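quick one, 160 residues, struct below
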Amino acid sequence: MSARRRGASRDGKVRGVSAEPAPKPLPVPDQLSEEFWRAAASHVLAVQRCVACGWFTHPPDVICVNCLSPERAFRFDPVSGRGRVRSWTVMHDAFLPGFRPDVPYVVVDVELDEQEGLRMVGQLVGGSADGLALGAAAEVVFDDVAEGRAVPRFRLVAGA
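---
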């Protein structure tokens, strides 16, 4: 008797598996992130900023980590989306089925130009880890993932 893959029928087909790729999960805005996602849908990168001291915070938080203001007042201000690669990793496994077609893909940690320590993590598009270096210039681009929903990603800036 030959070995069969678990879940496979005698003809070798896997039961319950669609030929269509699984969709990627969509962002689900909450009270803290709603303005971030609303701006992203318009292809604007807007980051939470403390009204008391002007400090940017990402991801959005309930208190300013810079001044600890008891006012807890924030606004979302547009930023350039430009920065420098601080770190990266290559994803060789898709932990969610919707990402299987992308494997392998690169996730970058970018420090935005507006403030030291203001970092954002996102998928690198239009490039690979080959030749990627610490300090490489990157800029935000937006991936329209559904009607009225866009996810920020990053691309490398040539010659910068």
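The longest strand covers residues 82-91.
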